[in-house]
Amino acid sequence: MKKWVNIAVKLGMIALFFLIIFLMSCSHSEHTTFRSTGFLDKSNLSHTDYVNVYKVIDGDTFWVKNKKGKNLKIRLIGIDAPEDRSAFKKKKHPFGKVSKGYLDSLIHDQEIRLEYDIDSLDRFGRTLAYAYLDDTFINEALIKYGYAVLMTIPPNVRYVSQFIEGQNYARSNQLGLWKLYENPVFD
User: Fold this and answer.
1) Which helix H or strand E contains 102, and what residues bound it?
2) I want to staple 143 with a disulfide (CB 3.0 to 4.6 A). Which of 17, 91, 132, 166 is the partner?
3) Which of 126, 140, 158, 171 is catalytic?
4) How much is the CA Rg of the chain, to the nearest whole Å?
């Protein structure tokens, strides 16, 4: 019996060793590939920034010009909107034009306020942000009215509870995507 206990302990130690190695490699990979630790310190961005929107790409991505005249591609945090065209590995979705049209009607040619979270860049180099037009929290509005769905990617989870409430509201009232689909999923 003692022999089996020793073998189990050794196997447990080996498994723990490989788990630690795996977690360390995942952490390192995520840090170097996807995370922008210290982005706000290294850039000249404050925690918030006022910008002018000049082009809406789709229901969760748009181009802005900041006060220094620099163009930035913005990806809204915490949401996923359907694509209005096929690009990369994402396929065009029938509701994509509606989602893009809603965002375009809200922010095109408007000055908005961007708020940044922990990670400020995604793996494609887009600036990740929460966006506000006056008192309208744009990320939340897109979810609440069914133009996008919740998509949380840690560590940017500051408003996840609001987004969950918004999605529950859209689902229970069958708004936007929820009128067409029981569980909207985009490829």
Assistant:
1) helix 96-107
2) 166
3) 126
4) 21
